[in-house]
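writing this on my phone so excuse typos. first protein, seq and then structure
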Amino acid sequence: MKIIFVSSEIVPFASSGGLGDVCAALPKALAKQGVEAIRMMPLYHDIDREKYGLKKCDVELHIPLGHAWFFGTVWMQEFKGVTTYFIHSAEFFDRPGIYGALDHGYADNFERFLFFQKAVVKLIDEWNMKPDVVHCNDWQAGLVPMLLRHGLGDYYRNGNEKTLMTIHNLAHQGWAPAEKFYMTQLPDSCYTMNTLEFYGEINCLKGGIVGATAVNAVSPTYAKEIKTAKFGCKLNGVLYHRQSVLHGILNGIDTDRWNPETDSYLPANYSVNNLGGKAVCKAALQKAAGLKADPKAPLLGVITRLVSQKGIDLLVASIEKIVGTGAQLVLLGSGDNYYEDICRQWAERWPDQVCVWIEFSSEKAHQIEAGADIFLMPSEFEPCGQNQLYSMRYGTIPLVHGVGGLEDSVVDYAQKSGTGFKFYGYTSEAFFQCLTRALKAFQNAARWKTLMRRAMKQDFSVVHMARDYIALYEKLLSGNETVD
């Protein structure tokens, strides 16, 4: 079986969240199970060609966007059984960041990723790759199913590849003005209320949802939620129409990369049978964060994008009460300037209890996962989430809002098989009440260690996710799922 992954993000090359993690871990897990996995992504300016051993391929791509033609090159890397092809364009990708700079998305993101998607189809044809399934991820790959079927405009294709559209976050849809449709060079039938047109504009994610052989979301609960008006981001009707081919597969994690027994970022390693190193990690995190060295003080960890989706408003509303409990807080993240400024003010006001790092740092992320006692994920909505999975593996107990993948992966402490703490109802009162429960449980050291060990024994390995995807690929290839 040959699978081609199309994604705008892949760790470690470029990532802004869970999309990059999944598109790194899943193909590697598939390769270990005998699947030929090929990945394709843009070659952004910030990707270090030398560091990652990228080699330029002997192929040139000439891609039409409407009446204009753009030149592209292809680079490649082979690593752990997975081949990754990087599509480069000086016009579109020789600039900072992935989607924009200084908190603003690039005005030509539609053109940038249209070029990328057309280049993917062109490369598939140039090298006669003949994939069994083309696996498209989020809106930046949403037009691939239609392009595979209809071609790039300079030639007719009539492709028969099976396609899977994975929704990592329905809120990001890739809207563009209707007048840009000509750049796709797709037939007029692709711009109707049943295809790309949405409220008078182009909606790239909708195009992937209606054009792909099948659709999946990154957790079973999220697959159900997005068919409702509350979580559907206006696309709930479209998804309801496609519900017969809509699936939910819970994301897994790379347990080699996230392993407290071998993690090189940690000052001490530890395991479910020997937790001694976790206390060392906590002390080291308190020191690095400039917090009071106190093993009995509950240490709360947050690693997040500072945007409203991630529940920052609940933290803003509750921060004084949190500090009043005597708990400490370490936050790592970046995002909206508004939230960044507020979080900095916390650290200035309570320097002995709150540390805020406005940055992206893999090293600090691992150290927070290992050093914290409780990990906070009060997201308003969460397609899957991965930090709650990392946290459990590191014996750091997640506190989550019971939505999406958080609902699917965390069992509340009140239950016999509890692995964390959950609250329902997106309010600061519900959040703080749940935190109060967690802090009370933390005071019983023996029970807390039992909870830690139970959480660490959970198996959310990407291996299980890979098996679920293989089963879905096989279903697509069997012909049991067809485009409506």
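second protein below, same order as before
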Amino acid sequence: MERITSRQNPLVQQIRKLNNSRSHRRTEGLFVGEGPKLLAEALGAGMDIGVVVAAEGVRPDCPPAIRQVEVPEDLLKSLSTTETPQGVLFLCRMPDLTPPDKLTGGRYLVLDGLQDPGNLGTIWRTADAFGADGLLLVNSCADPFSPKTVRATMGAAFRLPAWECGLGEAKALLDAAGIPLYATALRDDTLDVREAELSRAAVVIGSEGRGISREALALCAGTVKIPMRERCESLNAAVAAGVVLWEMKRSEM
């Protein structure tokens, strides 16, 4: 195992840049993962891991072919993006965020301008758990491979694809696959989410602040609502997505 002690070391500097800069992550095609559990999830999914960085005395469970570096505990702490570092960081090759030419699944979420990385990661994790086939990120969502997003996915980022594209491109892909697009919004055609046919569908989840954009709503074949008390106006985006995903899953049970 290599040993690095200098905060000026190129690898240390690279990790800091990847943690702090979306543009640097895209330029390098790399992102940072943290913690032994996330490392195990990445290895299990066959992700391309370039280097594992561990605190003194920590021996990560990974193949010997992967570059392994030991650093002082205080140095690792300075590289961590959490309040309680878990002793292991790793650099991972970013999956391709370009959508495929054809969608082969039947259930998708379209995330419309979602800004909170924690919400994005939680939705990603829930979509993986409930059998969705992928996420389509439109209108400048949070970075799917920021440290906070990746951490919130609990490994789903390594198993379930997420793609960034324009709203028109997302609609064209769904149309070509014969998948109707719905939105979680209120208008004349709104159905209770429990009554909508979502066994083969895509559903738009809007941003935390403004909800679903007018452009996205105009493209939807229908809308669904989640029943709740009248005194409550809305749900957190991740919670709303969880309810929708459960209804999608329930249709096959």
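The mean pLDDT is 94. thats all i got for now
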